[in-house]
Amino acid sequence: MLVDLTLIPFLVGLFSAVHCLGMCGGIVGMLTAGLPREVREHTLRRSLYLLLYNFARIASYAAGGALTGTLGAQALQGISPEFGHRMLQWLAGILLLGIGLYLAGWFPQLARLERLGLPLWRRLEPLAQRVLPVDSPLKALTFGALWGWFPCGLVYTTVFYATASGGAWQGALFMTFFGLGTLPATFGAGMISGWLARATHNTSLRRLVGLIVIATAVATLILPALMPTVPSLPTAIPWQRQEVEP
């Protein structure tokens, strides 16, 4: 269903605000402090830079999702379609389960996945340093695009999940909505991020969202096994093939 490519990643991004504020809040603060004074003191011009950072960052997420979605689809062509399909479903379910447990506060170790991206970031970091201080819209776009590859365990997990999305556009859509969910936390201060910080520190609310994601993961894992015997059940994930009786 389309909701699995839009609402679920949006909620994951939105309720990762505590993580985002901790990791990316410092980056946003550094970038804002480095803006020319006339830009920093002008609300609309400062907001434009923040939008450019985040637009490029989310575009990088979408590119990563398109890449892994394509790799997943190609993997299906190289192996048995039925076996490959089930394998990707299990991969998606396990990764989504880990995300749900992380959001609920029961699996903080998920953040350790960010170590996987350190070799790539060591190559990109010098490029990011070259555009500092960010004093033009082009530099803002460039830094934002590089920022999208900053080591983050939650981002990596969602990118890996996009492997099972079904293709390039599905993976890009999934990661785009994840990025949109992170936007309130990374866009800056003010009423929205202040409310978001309070909401995401609410243990009960975080656990509720985590349980929703966990329930979706469980459905992703068990519904394919039930489909042959219960053909009227709706699919839990958008790439589930429909079985047609001969």
Concise synopsis of the structure shown:
This protein has 246 residues and is mainly α. The chain has helices at residues 3-14, 17-23, 25-34, 37-40, 43-78, 81-103, 118-130, 137-147, 153-161, 168-187, 191-200, 203-226. It starts with a helix and ends in a 20-residue tail after the last helix.
The class by helix and strand makeup works out as mainly alpha
Radius of gyration: 19 Å
How many structurally independent domains?
1
How many individual helices? 12
Distance N terminus to C terminus?
25 Å
Strand content: under 5%
Series of secondary-structure elements, N-terminal to C-terminal: HHHHHHHHHHHH
Low-confidence stretches: 189-194, 228-246
Biggest sheet character: none
Helix content: over 70%
Report on the structure:
The protein is globular and about 60 Å long. It has one domain (about 5-225). It contains twelve helices and no strands. It is mainly α. The model is unreliable at about 190-195 and about 230-245 (pLDDT under 50). The chain has helices at about 5-15, 15-25, 25-35, 35-40, 45-80, 80-105, 120-130, 135-145, 155-160, 170-185, 190-200, 205-225.
Give keywords:
246 residues, mainly alpha, disordered C terminus, globular, 12 helices
Topology of helices and strands:
Layout: H1 3-14, H2 17-23, H3 25-34, H4 37-40, H5 43-78, H6 81-103, H7 118-130, H8 137-147, H9 153-161, H10 168-187, H11 191-200, H12 203-226
